[in-house]
């Protein structure tokens, strides 16, 4: 299949095909979809700077994976780069098949240089927009792409059929080698230097240097409707997104249909996806699509705005685009209000099966900390924790250790709640910031088919901050959220147990809490982590060991023969 480079001068048809990654789509009736992913280093230039980056098939962003609900997918990954590699298929549930989930040292050992591994999985009961990305080091800065799951043949969308659709992947760009930036931060015991730009489909847009080559554009036709599949692949920034002069109708989040609503802008946290309908019914012209960060905590971020162009057919490239009115970078009210509007469709065809009875209550506090670091320039380094426990990465895959009953790799004594309650969101806490670090990862074991409620509570250890949390292997229902300390007596009375949003990644509000519910019907070892890469690397993560069920179809599948070794 061919590849293309988008520009202002292409016809709409070609622009549409380019915007979704490939010129030709797979056959619509195919039951087996096969892809070859070659991990390659390629020289790429942005912001007038050229550097080698890690890519899939030399593409940045990488190729779109097109499948249909019910398909079997085989993606062979061959690693030609100098780094170990693993790929995570973000949001795909991988029922009984954690071997295909991808996080390095959790469900597999990484694919070493010169080696290959085939991710073999079924797409069952899911349709919509997801994505894939590297799940080792900070390599997902450039190793990422979209996953588009079409509904079963003959199954329409539960919203007006769009005339066309295209993907918009939001990301970050560093002028320097990202892994070297991270190493420098570790030497200092401080956060790595922030990114130099945000991008839309790998391009920063005309508000940055050297914009001629580095602006993504799509041509639209007056009176037509478009489905935009929007993915936040940024490493560390929640992003607002808007299109000048156009409303967005939200119809799906994290590959789950929603009750449609119209908005001037959306908020997408790292790891999240949002599908919106846009009608090209404004005055013909050129309009900026723009993305910039949301940050309502006293922390430094890359606050630059990435732009792309929505261009009506027949309008010359010389026409100056107009910018949208994005929310202010610290607009907490918009962020909370937008998330409050999200509701599952909860129709007879797409019900919201919210667990009403809870078997296991979990309460996890999110904190930052400082630990001694003799090799760091400052003698200390920043760290992060859940329930004051900093996760220690193992040297072999946790799923292998669980499946083969290997001893000494991990423990299952992760606490259901913090050992010492405190005023989590009161005045900033700057004393006693050391976190617990054991020699082995501490996990939480959960019985098969249990119903779980997990409350994620932000704290003011060093600083409050919004945290997008991703759970592998499952979707969950966001039944409640609030600012301040969670009140176990009062707050559950306000839960939405009828049509709460269903997703795989949720933002915990700054200085607040989020409650999620899910049923543990997928046996395996499933990662739970903050999707800010900075915090994940500091240890803001854990994993659930979900036990096998009683039936043969409720147990972990055997590992594939080509599973990488450590």
From TrEMBL:
PANTHER family: LACCASE-2, MULTI-COPPER OXIDASE. This is Laccase. It catalyses: 4 hydroquinone + O2 = 4 benzosemiquinone + 2 H2O. Keywords: Apoplast, Copper, Glycoprotein, Lignin degradation, Metal-binding, Oxidoreductase, Repeat, Secreted, Signal. Residues 1-30 form the signal peptide. Belongs to the multicopper oxidase family. One of its GO terms (cellular component) is apoplast. GO terms for biological process: lignin catabolic process.
């Amino acid at each position: 299949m061919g590849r293309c480079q988008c520009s202002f001068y292409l016809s709409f048809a070609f622009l549409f095909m380019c915007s979704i990654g490939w010129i030709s789509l797979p056959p619509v009736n195919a039951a087996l979809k096969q892809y070859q992913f070659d991990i390659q280093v390629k020289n790429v230039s942005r912001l007038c700077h050229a550097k080698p980056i890690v890519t899939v098939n030399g593409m940045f962003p990488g190729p779109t994976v097109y499948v249909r609900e019910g398909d079997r997918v085989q993606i062979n990954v061959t690693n030609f780069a100098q780094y170990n590699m693993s790929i995570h298929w973000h949001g795909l549930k991988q029922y009984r098949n954690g071997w295909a989930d991808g996080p390095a040292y959790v469900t597999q050992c990484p694919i070493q240089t010169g080696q290959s591994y085939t991710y073999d999985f079924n797409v069952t009961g899911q349709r919509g927009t997801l994505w894939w990305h590297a799940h080792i080091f900070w390599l997902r800065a450039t190793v990422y792409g979209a996953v588009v799951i079409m509904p079963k043949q003959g199954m329409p969308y539960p919203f007006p059929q769009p005339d066309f659709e295209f993907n918009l992947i939001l990301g970050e760009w560093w002028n320097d080698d990202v892994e070297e930036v991270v190493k420098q931060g570790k030497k200092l015991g401080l956060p790595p230097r922030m990114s130099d730009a945000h991008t839309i489909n790998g391009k920063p847009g005309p508000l940055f240097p050297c914009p001629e080559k580095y602006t993504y554009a799509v041509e639209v036709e007056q009176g037509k409707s478009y489905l935009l599949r929007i993915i936040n692949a940024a490493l560390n920034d929640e992003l607002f997104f808007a299109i000048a002069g156009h409303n967005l109708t939200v119809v799906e989040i994290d590959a789950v249909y929603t009750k449609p609503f119209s908005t001037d802008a959306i908020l997408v946290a790292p790891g999240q996806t949002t599908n919106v309908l846009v009608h090209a019914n404004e005055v013909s012209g050129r309009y900026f699509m723009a993305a910039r960060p949301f940050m309502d905590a006293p922390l430094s971020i890359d606050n630059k705005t990435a732009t792309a162009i929505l261009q009506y057919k027949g309008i010359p490239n010389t026409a100056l685009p107009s910018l949208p009115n994005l929310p202010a970078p610290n607009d907490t009210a918009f962020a909370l209000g937008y998330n409050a509007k999200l509701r599952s469709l909860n129709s007879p065809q797409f019900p919201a099966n919210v667990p009403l009875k809870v078997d296991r209550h979990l309460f996890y506090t999110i904190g930052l900390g400082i630990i001694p670091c003799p090799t760091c320039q400052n003698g200390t380094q920043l760290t992060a924790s859940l329930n004051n426990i900093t996760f220690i990465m193992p040297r072999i895959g946790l799923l292998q250790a669980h499946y083969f009953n290997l001893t000494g790799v991990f423990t299952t004594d992760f606490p259901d709640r913090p050992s010492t309650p405190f005023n989590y969101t009161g005045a900033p806490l700057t004393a006693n910031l050391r976190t617990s670090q054991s020699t082995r990862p501490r996990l939480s074991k959960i019985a098969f088919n249990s119903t779980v409620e997990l409350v994620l509570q932000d704290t003011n250890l060093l600083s409050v901050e919004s945290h997008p949390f991703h759970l592998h292997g499952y979707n969950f229902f966001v039944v409640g959220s609030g600012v301040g300390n969670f009140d176990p007596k009062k707050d559950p009375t306000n839960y939405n147990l009828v049509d709460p949003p269903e997703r795989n990644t949720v933002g915990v509000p700054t200085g607040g809490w989020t409650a999620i519910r899910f049923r543990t019907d997928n046996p395996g070892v499933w990662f739970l982590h903050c999707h800010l890469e900075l915090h994940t690397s500091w240890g803001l993560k854990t994993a659930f060991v979900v036990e096998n069920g009683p039936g043969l179809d409720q147990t972990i599948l055997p590992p594939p023969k080509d599973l990488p070794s450590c």
